[in-house]
């Protein structure tokens, strides 16, 4: 990761306290303090960003896709979506969004899922689950602590029969989504390394993480 100083791409104005570029295929994490805003920038477009959320004070309180979907009454995430823990507690809220549709159903790729979906020749490929385990270990987390995840910028339409598709993203170069922390929130990210489906246009690229304090 390389630290940058250009703050022009923060979606919500404020004092910049963190501004980092996450390399293609790499993990990232930070604790975003309550009230601060994390802007995720899709630098080159069509790059999926897998994300896990935890209460920084108690990592047993973690993001729940079922709770979030049930409370908001829709599948896709966008401006106004409250990202909730399985307790119902609000972890973060999407306060601005230039894409309009983000996925919380498709899950995270792994060596096992790659092998099942795309064949044995993909077994050696690094996946988001491996990134989560590597980065989570820095915060005392292991495989038992992994939960449902968000896929920022990823387009996963649901067919009438309930099947999930993975198709080209709706994002573009420089598109952003901004999340306000409702409590001190540990954010784990895997800048998705997937090269076997269109979620990254078959070519993973860097993203940018900017934290501002209004």
What does this structure look like?
The chain has 214 residues and is an alpha+beta fold. The protein has one domain. The chain has three helices and eleven strands. The strands form two sheets. Strands 1-2-11-4-9-7-6 form a seven-stranded antiparallel β-sheet. It has a four-stranded antiparallel β-sheet with strand order 3-10-5-8, covered by helices on one side. Strand 6 (82-84) and strand 7 form a beta hairpin. Residues 1-7 have low confidence and may be disordered.
What layout of secondary structure does this protein have?
Elements (H helix, E strand, L loop, with lengths): L1 E2 L11 E8 L4 E6 L4 E6 L6 E7 L9 H8 L9 E3 L5 E8 L13 H8 L9 H10 L12 E3 L22 E7 L3 E7 L15 E7 L1
Antiparallel strand pairs: 1-2, 2-11, 3-10, 4-9, 4-11, 5-8, 5-10, 6-7, 7-9
Entry keywords:
214 residues; 11 strands; DUF1989; UAAP2; 3 helices; DUF1989 domain-containing protein; disordered N terminus; globular
Portion in beta strands: 25-35%
Strand order of the largest sheet: 1-2-11-4-9-7-6
Mean pLDDT: 88
Tally of individual domains: 1
Radius of gyration: 16 Å
InterPro entries: DUF1989, UAAP2
Domain DUF1989: 20-186
Protein name: DUF1989 domain-containing protein
Q: What's the gist of this structure?
A:
With 214 residues, this protein is an alpha+beta fold. Helix content is 12%, strand content 30%. The strands form two sheets. Strands 1-2-11-4-9-7-6 form a seven-stranded antiparallel beta sheet. Strands 3-10-5-8 form a four-stranded antiparallel beta sheet, covered by helices on one side.
């Amino acid at each position: 990761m390389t630290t940058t100083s250009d703050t022009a791409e923060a979606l919500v104005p404020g004092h910049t306290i963190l501004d980092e570029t996450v390399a293609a295929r790499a993990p990232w994490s930070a604790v975003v303090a309550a009230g601060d805003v994390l802007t995720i920038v899709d630098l080159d477009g069509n790059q999926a960003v897998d994300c896990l959320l935890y209460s920084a004070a108690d990592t047993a309180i973690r993001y729940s896709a079922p709770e979030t979907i049930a409370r908001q009454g829709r599948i896709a995430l966008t401006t106004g979506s409250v990202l909730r823990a399985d307790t119902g507690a609000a972890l973060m809220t999407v306060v601005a969004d230039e894409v309009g549709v983000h996925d919380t159903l498709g899950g995270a790729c792994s060596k096992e899922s790659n092998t099942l979906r795309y064949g044995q020749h993909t077994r050696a490929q690094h996946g988001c689950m491996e990134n989560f385990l590597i980065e989570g270990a820095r915060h005392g987390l292991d495989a038992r602590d992994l939960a449902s995840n968000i896929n920022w910028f990823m387009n996963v339409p649901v067919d009438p029969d309930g099947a999930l598709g993975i198709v080209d993203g709706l994002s573009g170069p420089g598109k952003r989504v901004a999340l306000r922390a409702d409590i001190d929130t540990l954010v784990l990210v895997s800048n998705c390394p997937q090269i076997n489906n269109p979620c990254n246009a078959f070519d993973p690229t860097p993203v940018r993480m900017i934290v501002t304090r209004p």
